[in-house]
Amino acid sequence: MYKRAIVVLMAVLAFAINAQAADGPANVVLLISDDQSWTDYGFMGHPHVQTPNLDRLAGAGLLYERGYVTAPLCRASLASIVTGLYPHQDGIRNNDPKMPNGARRGTIMKNDPDLWREMRARMEAPMLEHPSLVKVLKENGYATLQTGKWWEGNPLNHGFTDAMIQGDTATPV
After folding, report:
1. In the chain, count of helices (H) and strands (E)?
2. Burial of residue 10 (number of CB atoms within 10 Å: 0-12, 13-18, 19+)
3. Domain count across the chain
């Protein structure tokens, strides 16, 4: 169970190596990997998994080896990383909207897509209200890219300047 919920957080700050020599703002790369154990990387000592590019990145930057998630679910943990708030503060505690009594997610998605979109919009609303690392970076002139999993609807509404979900750059949601 914990393996699914573990989020490996690796922050690489280029200025850690040459902060005093930097002419402009620091480069910031934040990689969040889902559904992996913290040991599933070469730089973390896995005997078979080879991750040479990530190994070099980890060796050149700052690696947080003892990160902990605030919740055992992907969405709640990601929201906490982005907002800096606990799930009880940002209101994000689940991956999916709360279902009406007796209803099933797949049934609502198939039979009433308008209701499903409305439920998702209500669920995503708290992230629009809170400050976030992404918004702060964008406000300070950084390009912010989101790829892969993003639970909060269109990433462009949350401070990302560019987004790609499942390889689709034209439709980021």
Report:
1. 8, 4
2. buried
3. 1
Please check whether residue 5 is in contact with residue 77, taking contact to mean a CB–CB distance below 8 angstroms: yes
- 148 is a domain residue: yes
CB 81 within 8 A of CB 9: yes
* 125-148 mean pLDDT: 91
For residue 110, is it within any domain?
no
91 Rama sector, left if φ>0, alpha if ψ -120 to 50, beta otherwise:
left
Report how far apart the first and last C-alpha atoms of the chain are (Å, whole number).
28
The DSSP secondary structure of 93-147, one letter per residue, reads --SSPPPPTT--HHHHHHH-HHHHHHHHHHHHHHHHHS--HHHHHHHTT---EEE
At which residue do the structure tokens 């750059």 appear? 169
Q: Which domain holds residue 86?
A: 2-91+131-164
Give me the half-sphere count of Cα atoms (radius 13 Å) on the Cβ side of residue 149. 14
Contacts of 33 (CB under 8 A, 6+ apart): 7, 8, 10
Asked if residues 163 and 146 have their Cβ atoms less than 8 Å apart, the reply is yes
Please report the pLDDT score of residue 83 as a whole number: 92
State what percent of residues in the chain have pLDDT above 70: 83
Residue 103, CA distances (Å) to 97, 100, 116, 117 in order: 11, 5, 11, 15
Stretch 137-157: mean pLDDT, rounded? 89
